[in-house]
From TrEMBL:
Gene name per UniProt: argS
Motif ('HIGH' region): 122-132
SMART domains hit by this protein: Arg_tRNA_synt_N, DALR_1
One BP term from GO: arginyl-tRNA aminoacylation
Taxonomic placement: Bacteria, Bacillati, Bacillota, Bacilli, Lactobacillales
Record's subcellular location: Cytoplasm
One GO CC term, this protein: cytoplasm
DALR anticodon binding domain residues: 450-563
Enzyme class name: ligase
Keywords noted in UniProt: Aminoacyl-tRNA synthetase, ATP-binding, Cytoplasm, Ligase, Nucleotide-binding, Protein biosynthesis
Protein name: Arginine--tRNA ligase
Family membership: Belongs to the class-I aminoacyl-tRNA synthetase family.
Catalysed reaction equations from the record: tRNA(Arg) + L-arginine + ATP = L-arginyl-tRNA(Arg) + AMP + diphosphate
EC number: 6.1.1.19
């Protein structure tokens, strides 16, 4: 039951069409302090239309409201405070959660519509950056939130696996590289060759011509060039997959830029047909004055294609393959202008799904105040950051719960979960600095805190043993439990809102709120007391455990039963 809708109806019955139902619904506030009720209506917003003092309006309306289904309705100053019927509501919420289990909060707003999500998308032969990490975990969580809202996401890793840099890499490898080194440590060595290329080509500009030739060969399908490119790609992917495995993220497709190498003509043809391509200093551009944007460069003067040329092909492919309900690109804020241009070009082309294109930007991330760069000459790989977090988690568990049987596994879930949560609890567009130790604390606004709260709920249930919760009376009127019950009730709305805003942080913040409310209940009420209320209290604990676990799941964070 939507209690906001119930209160809206009560108010509408007392009003004389001064406000629409949507108006009332929107005006309802959730007071911070429970002594002001569960929902409050600001009567002063009616002062102008009703030509009366706010407190008089409040009193008049209260006298007309049917208060039978509430614990209390009171006029307080310029507000009307609604106190919901605790027993009734707790019974309803807990019953719903226990019946639906992990499906609690599921809706069908998406009607099964396809949603390609362009996410992670690191560049071959380069280390996966913290930016790519953010794209990976944000994209993964958005995909889960979309499923919860009835959509069908397609997670696509749009690898940066094409471009002139591969000509350079081939030249560098042939001159200075060797097979064993690449196999042993692909990313670090490939980067080393690439860096050397750029040191050498200052004095030997002929290297650039060689590189151009090799990229041309690659584009033409030359056997050796293709073999080397494929090999660099495979080795890089192996390194990336190690990280994806640790994060527990999978993809549906890996259609990188190379995949579109032979699919670019169609887009160029449409641009030509529609008369959108214009020559500018030998190059081909699309003017975007109408959008207040600079022209988009589509083809270089030598006919070479660019990042955007491949993105146009990608958009056409996704349009035809998926008939998308939404088109999402989870890519850092630094590409915001670029995506504005891309969207404008696609709109001009008349591509159906251009209107549903959403660039989902996010801010920068640093670790312990530093950009992820070099540590004693070596590139710090994300992999190492994850390992550090797991190591720290292990230490924590070692002191807190030394007898835990599956310590290694739990340390992984807690360490990795701390990193994912530490990212996702922030609004996407914020810049964040990561202090590993802080994110790994079992108290405060952290993943481990939410995980710990879930494990606490599970441990209470375990201690209680086999008790039939379905038969239990679930109308709980304990004041100390009220915040928890109200928070459980909010979950379905939070799921919708997080989806509409493409904002995993709403789920993360929600999970913190539920964990806090539950811990307060735990601190103030004796849950495992031996009285007739035991089963009803345990049913609430079970509901909390289910919703905490599902919230973490929506973020891509595991919820161990013990830690
Ligand atoms: N590989 C690019 C980078 O690392 C990100 C690709 C984003 N996706 C896209 N369709 N342009 O900057």
């Amino acid at each position: 039951m939507d209690y906001k809708a119930q209160v809206t109806n009560s108010l509408l019955e007392a009003l004389n069409d001064e406000l629409t139902s949507a108006d009332v619904y929107q005006k309802l506030e959730t007071p911070k302090d429970l002594s002001m009720g569960d929902l409050a209506f600001p009567a002063f917003t009616l002062a102008k239309v009703m030509h009366k003092a706010p407190n008089m309006i409040a009193e008049e309306l209260v006298s007309k409201i049917n208060t039978a289904s509430y614990e209390k309705v009171e006029a307080k100053g310029a507000y009307i405070n609604f106190f919901l019927d605790k027993g009734h509501m707790s019974n309803e919420v807990i019953t719903n959660v226990l019946e639906e289990g992990a499906a609690y909060g599921q809706n069908d707003l998406g009607k099964g519509g396809n949603v390609p999500i362009d996410m992670s998308s690191p560049n071959i032969a380069k280390p996966i950056s913290m930016g790519h990490l953010r794209s990976t975990v944000i994209g993964n969580s958005i995909a889960k939130i979309l499923v919860k809202n009835g959509y069908h996401p397609i997670k696509d890793n749009h690898l940066g696996d094409w471009g002139t840099q591969f000509g350079k890499l081939i030249v560098a490898y042939k001159k200075w590289g060797n097979e064993d080194d690449v196999k042993a440590d692909p990313i670090n060595n490939l980067v080393k060759y690439y860096v050397k290329f750029h040191q050498e080509d200052k004095e030997h500009p002929e290297l650039d011509d060689e590189a151009r030739e090799w990229f041309k060969k690659l584009e033409d399908g030359d056997e050796e060039a293709t073999f080397l490119w494929q090999w660099f790609r495979d080795e890089s992917l192996k390194a990336f997959n190690k990280i994806y495995d640790k994060l527990g993220v999978t993809f549906d497709t890996y259609n990188g830029e190379a995949f579109y190498n032979d699919k670019m003509q169609a887009g160029i043809d449409i641009l030509k047909e529609k008369g959108l391509l214009e020559e500018s200093q030998g190059a081909q551009v699309v003017k975007l004055d109408k959008y207040d944007l600079n022209p988009a460069l589509i083809l270089k003067s030598d006919g070479a294609t660019l990042y955007i040329t491949r993105d146009i092909a990608t958009a056409i492919y996704r349009d035809q393959t998926y008939k998308p309900a939404l088109n999402l690109y989870v890519v850092g804020s630094e590409q915001t202008y670029y995506f504005q241009q891309l969207k404008a070009v696609l709109l001009e082309m008349g591509l159906k799904s251009a209107e549903n294109l959403h660039h989902i930007p996010f801010g920068l991330i640093t670790v312990n105040g530093k950009k992820l760069s070099t540590r004693s000459g070596r590139i710090i790989l994300l992999d190492e950051v994850l390992d550090d977090a797991i190591e720290l988690a292990k230490k924590q568990i070692e002191t807190k719960n030394p007898d835990l049987p599956n310590k290694e596994e739990v340390a992984k879930e807690v360490g990795v979960g701390a990193i994912i949560f530490g990212d996702l609890k922030n609004e996407r567009t914020n810049n964040i600095d990561f202090v590993l130790e802080d994110q790994l604390r079992f108290e405060g606004e952290t993943g481990p805190y939410v995980q710990y709260s879930h494990a606490r709920a599970e441990s209470i249930l375990k201690k209680a043993g086999n008790i039939d919760l379905h038969a239990a009376d679930k109308s709980i009127t304990d004041e100390n439990a009220w915040d928890t019950i109200r928070t459980l009730q909010d979950f379905p709305e939070v799921v919708k809102s997080a989806c509409a805003d493409f904002e995993p942080s709403e789920i993360a913040k929600y999970s913190l709120r539920l964990a806090k409310a539950f811990n307060k209940y735990y601190a103030h009420s004796t849950i495992l007391g031996d009285d007739e209320g035991l089963a009803s209290r345990l049913s609430l604990v079970k509901a909390v455990s289910i919703v905490l676990k599902e919230s973490l799941n929506l973020l891509g964070v595991k919820a161990p039963d013990e830690m």
